[in-house]
Amino acid sequence: MSISETAKILVVDDEKSMREFLDIMLAKEGYHVTSARDGEEACRILEKDTFDLVITDIRMKTIDGLGVLRKVKEVNPSTVVVLISAFATAETAVEAMKEGAYDYIPKPFKVHDIKRIISEALKSSQSAVQADASPAKERLHFGSLIGESLQMRKVYDLVQRVSGTKTNILIAGESGTGKELVARAIHNLSDRRDRPIVVINCAGIPENLIESELFGFKKGAFTGATADKEGLFGVADGGTVFLDEIGELSPVIQVKLLRVIQDRTFTAVGGTDVKVVDVRFIAASNKDLEAEVIDGNFREDLYFRLNVIPIDVPPLREREGDIPLLAQHFLEKYSLEMGKDIGKISAYAMSILQKYPFPGNVRELENIVERSVALETSNIVLPGSLTLSNLRMGSQPAEIREKRSLDPKGIELDKVMAEIEKGYVTQAMEMAKGSKQRAADLLGINLRSLRYRLEKL
Ligand SMILES: Nc1ncnc2c1ncn2[C@@H]1O[C@H](COP(=O)(O)OP(=O)(O)OP(=O)(O)O)[C@@H](O)[C@H]1O
Ligand SMILES: [Mg+2]
Question: pTM, whole model, 2 decimals?
């Protein structure tokens, strides 16, 4: 079969107006359409002719949608079946999915959704045929990075090119886009791969400990220093240091770090001898570091040292083509982990995911899929088990702008903003049932920023 415009579709519906509507709409799309007035006629046609796809109503007299599905699976199992279900027949629809239907379209539907689901269903049957032909064909991935969008290919290309060098790299991108995976991919492709990659979360180490953590300390350097201890830079010798959330470093530590990066030397706390290390630095930030430099929060010299080669990891909403690949990957991961047999995300559920803007990027997608695997009771992820935030659907910022008109008497902007913030933060915590990470994802901010805002409340 080809997904060319000449794909053959059988439309089955006992309601004349619906049948005609589908007939015309699909013919307009360029498909070759045949229609059947009921399940019995459909079965007769199916015995004589083969189709690429059958779209059938569920509730029909004598032979219903499930009956048509069974007939299709009997005469030509490679034909894909899409069902149209009213609310009352949702259970049957789920039943049908278990028997091999590709997806169901709940009524009322949008023409746009039908068109997409049909074209996806046709593609899926084609790729199933291809997969049979070459079962070894792997999904494109790069290290543990998944995605084959143009934007990600550019990232892979850059990773490949910089991995052989020793230059410092700054990885920029929103929270959850995969910056750490990119850093690990660079390390694993480099000739440093047999030495450690040490991840330092610059936001996580208390300022008074950061020096002893990074540089190590000598016995007796401070109370509690009962023996010499090697610091993280020492551990990373010959390998890679990944400085995560570099934008959170205090000015004092920024100076000390600058010295290590410039001279590749450091001194343990309480020590005197200068140690030389061979490390490659990769830094990451979800803040706009250039803006931080302009605002005077980040040292310019350090910025230029780190930013020899910038790599931008694009947000997920700008590479929605990667959503199905990632979703399927996480589905397999969590099904296995939870010992469930859920192999597929329904096309309708997938179309919902592809419209979602993912403020928390890949991490949020992973969380959504994980939850749906936990919640799902059938063997396919259906829209009902997707827990997306409605808050984020649609064009929120524009709506907010439009609804608020400025009081001619003037306002206190800071107070108003604080009120808005409080409202959203509280709502997000409620929706997330107390999970801070989830609440932060809902608000499109990172965990640290959420904690800060919660403290303010
Ligand atoms: N392209 C990808 N393929 C597979 N998994 C991914 C991809 N991108 C991100 N992930 C997964 O998403 C989660 C977040 O990724 P990661 O920690 O690398 O993001 P990050 O950009 O460092 O986020 P943050 O700024 O919040 O630290 C991880 O569980 C990671 O495995
Ligand atoms: Mg990270």
Answer: 0.67
